[in-house]
## 1
Amino acid sequence: MPINAEWHLAHRMPQNATFEARAAWHLDHAEHCGCRPIPAKLAEQMRERGLPAE
């Protein structure tokens, strides 16, 4: 899927983001852009905490 540049410009990952912020950003990203998958390590941590990682 091509990059949704407009979404990326409007939704910057905060500096020093918490786990919760990173997980939420990546889930939102997957819904609106999906130019890349959720990083494997983060996806693993999300699954361990019972969060969707797709």
## 2
Amino acid sequence: MNNKTPPSEMIRVPTVLIPVVRQLAKIHRDGHTTALLQGLQELIAQFDSSVKLEVTNELQQVEEKLGELETHLCQQDQLVATKLEVLGKQLEKIEKAIASGKYSGGNSRPRRSGYPYQYQQQAVEIKEFAPENLAQRLGVTQQSLITERESKSEQEFISWSRNRDPSSLGWKFQDGLYYPVKQ
């Protein structure tokens, strides 16, 4: 067996490390290679273990933060669940009240006034409408309103508009505006 060291290889090192590599080469030429390798291995082991410790500490801090976040989120989930329960109970009460007739909907008979006399509602008189307003009232576009008016006779248009109007009013076109037709 040959105990000779292998021939040197050329390697590139950062400029900052050139003096250190020269010093290592001198120690090697002086015959201290084994001691040098042991010293380097110990140094590298210390460096690696300190890096592992730093990483471990950082990981522990991250784990702690994640634990805190998890706790916070669990608390928020419980809070939301509690609020949802309360809302659900309130909805149940409202549904029961509606079902029992305590609250009347918009399509049931009107509630009686607490006053001894009834107010007489005055009918609101609808006057003229601009084309865009009547189109909106009838639920059509302004263009389709014009098309219907031009394609139908006056009586047909009044009938058509009466069928679409929420108050069953017929409409007549005059001077650029639409006027309600009395029945």
## 3
Amino acid sequence: MKVSEEERGEWAVLRVSGEMDLVTSPAVRQHVHDAVADGRRSLVLDLSEVLFCDSSGVGVLIASRRLMRSCAGQLRLILPAQGAEDGSHVNRVLAALGVRRLFDCYPDLSTATQETAAGPLSA
């Protein structure tokens, strides 16, 4: 798994690629915590290149949502209909678990980082 960081205006963007599982998910959690510790309150997790996500990865996403809400921040996910290998695996996992509706999901980075985003994709 690889996590890269960039900034888009007020948004801190974390691009995650590879697998989010028991071994790799703590790294994503740490990047989110580091962004908050640096004072970032607007965060985008680009999950379009995540090939696999298990329950520990979902747990990190839910914990990240909780953390951002606790500091009056915003969390947006990039979960395109077509992404890593025939569609976003994370999108399918979140939908199957019934938790996708908890997240503001966008199809791409430009849409997710707009000041007045058009609105998240429906579940």
## 4
Amino acid sequence: MSHNTFGHLFRVTTWGESHGPAIGCVVDGCPPGLQLTPEFIQQFLDKRRPGTSRFVTQRQEEDKVRILSGVFEDDRTGGPVTTGTPISLMIENTDQRSKDYGEIRDSYRPGHADYAYDQKYGVRDYRGGGRSSARETATRVAAGAVARQVLGGGITLRGAVVQIGPHAIDRANWDWSIVEQNPFWCPDAAMVPKWEAFLDTTRKAGSSCGAIIEVVADGVPPGWGAPIYGKLDGDIAAAMMSINAVKGVEIGAGFASAALSGEDNADEMRRSGNGVAFLSNNNGGVLGGISTGQPVVARIAIKPTSSILTPRKTVNAQGEDVDIRTKGRHDPCVGIRAVPVAEAMLACVLADHLLRHRGQTGR
């Protein structure tokens, strides 16, 4: 299997399977001299960790990260710092229940990657989907923590769920301070009990639902990205589409901009001190593939979890028509735990573009 690496100067290679002994990643291109500890990385992994509420999978994984290389205890700096060499990170799998998948080893789950994997490789790991499992995203979160250190404290990355199933938040109620105070990463306090009731019904029915996540990066300076084939928003879109179950990406106003007039969509400008102030941000902080200094805003649409208890029509490896239901411990809405993953992918893209910009312009 190829294409397990993303990025140009800040490069991340992930490895491992859902039901293997461990998963991990190698981060290459991280500059030397940055403070990096397991505790710093762990805080982000804990946000993605399974089993934290009844609304996510009950698989019990601690997701404890180990730094295997690329960090040195430097007495001169008072703590472990990156050396500039590849950083290898590992997370052990400790709560696999492979027997849950015995009944589907020869059948393809509708909406899952089973059929496509088998057609491409002629072999597939049916235990939780192998590499196609969202378990792999824990390694991206770990890599995203390294990327945050590259970006430094001047850039803030935050994410929130803005829609679950058909129920969207009221953006007038947006409050970042409550996002981590509820199990849904919801910025609208009034929507929390509605999502709670909706997901309880969905979970008890053995079904699933989709979600929309919004991620925002504040503090990105103007100038990152390159025209044509190195566009910042193009790389963000590609990174977001690589996340499991993502079926759509928007930058700024996104698809809604198709209904706007040119007057409404234009992000008008006025002088502000020695710089420029924008009067709106329909373009999500990117124009011509280059950051403008405004917040970088992206949204992703995540489809319903394919592993459900409701019987579905499919075929097996022998070409026979069969019905299938998936046992095991699955998220009724995988979008909830995808918030830290989307933040991490945005961090990795921005770290890569910081280094690319520095390499081309010297600043």
